[in-house]
Amino acid sequence: MKVAFKMQLKPGMKEEYEKRHAAIWPELVALLKDNGIADYSIYLDEETYTLFAVQRLTGNSSQELGNTELVQRWWKYMADIMETNPDFSPISKPLINVFHLD
Fold first, then answer.
1. From CA 14, how far away is CA 33, in angstroms rounded?
2. pTM flag (> 0.85)
3. 50 forms bridges with which residues in the sheet?
């Protein structure tokens, strides 16, 4: 199964977002993989600073791992460059699949 969602990057933060993800914490990668998340891509619309994420799942979505201390630390680490909720989770909106081609 695949899920897609969008988030909002703050203007001018593209390079910092890329830098932080290039150095993603190994323990966070392990947590995602251990929970069945693979083939995870995030794209940026540079005109609107909208982030578009797609994940292939055999378990939970990354959006469902917010109860872990590790994910909560990542959220706080990213909060200064993204639009967030009061708990520092990224404001995330699920996207509906309207077409798929294998």
1. 25
2. yes
3. 8, 45
**Per residue in 12-45, pLDDT tens?**
999 999 999 999 999 999 999 999 998 999 999 9
Is residue 100 part of the annotated active site? The answer reads: no
Active-site annotation holder among 21, 33, 56, 76: 21
Between helices 69-78 and 14-22, what is the axis angle to 10°? 150
Q: Which two tokens stand for residue 71?
A: 């994910």
Instruction: Please give the backbone phi and psi of residue 91, each rounded to the nearest 5 degrees, phi first.
Output: -65, 115
* Separation between Cα atoms, residue 82 and residue 9, nearest integer Å: 4
HSE at residue 33, side-chain half, CA atoms within 13 A, is 6
CA atoms within 13 A of residue 99's CA, in its CB half-sphere: 1
